[in-house]
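Per-residue structure
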Amino acid sequence: MPQTADPTSTIPRVVLLGLGRWGANHLRVLRGLPVELYCADTDPARLAKLAETGIAQERLSTDPYAFLDTVDCVVVATPAQSHYELCRRYLEADKDVFVEKPLTLTSQDSRALAELAESRGRILQVGHIFRFDPAAQWLNRAIAKGEFGNLKILRGNFSGFKRPRNDSGVTFADAIHFVDLFNLFMGGPPVRVTAMLGDFLGRGMDDESWIALDYETPGGSVVSALIETGYHTPGKYREVKVLGERASAVCDFNVAQYKVRMFDAHHEVGQDGIVAVEETTRQLEFPPEEPLLAEVRAFLDSMTSRTPPLADGWAGYWAVRVIERALESARERRTLPLDA
């Protein structure tokens, strides 16, 4: 019989839903944190293997709601199609929720969850992991401080030769990472979306994706963002470029250290036309920190402080809304406004 959550306990009781590829990473992180851990997965074999590592059998279940009245919060690492119903049930039970991206597969469902979390006073954090990388946080601060001057272009490449996901196309699976990151950099979503998708594997889901986003700045200028994702390019690319009027940066999320190269380079109008002026190049180092660990810690901190997380339900909603419009743009073969 599941226990009832103890309101006087200072150690959060967490149930992890899903022990697949990414759920296994959450399991590793959670087992290293001061939490009381429960796990649920539809595969009994995964649970049996987990029991062999020391987790008590009474804390394991094939029912995702078995510990609904026992825990304080849930970490949802299940296929994207299940996110809405799982999150809804836990939020309605007044539990805090961390859910892997995408929040849901439709913006309508994402908005409903963001509104539900607000109305119930619950924490809803979405697993937009790049927001928590120290290099991304430095870029965000540098943009806000004007170190690049007026931004011109953002570019992202999240591609490589790998096995496709089964629950969504590459746009929802991978492009959403840099869509969300660029939303963070720009302080909000884009105003226009243009996309071209390819289904080269014939699965009925996109496995190559090219997305162009137009962001309007408070001053009325437009920053163009380009995001490429796919499963076919040899190698592994997790690269973001920030190109500004005074300086530019290249960030390689694949490397552990020295992720950001900062280029003091700009164009000037000279006697013979426009010239390219290149000055110093800096290699920036950041304290090593695992982004997954950082975002899970941030979730637990938000639970304690009751302050909105960096990647809240509305961030999840806007990322899904942009992806949704990208899929529509590709089908209709035209640029679409985001608010239509």
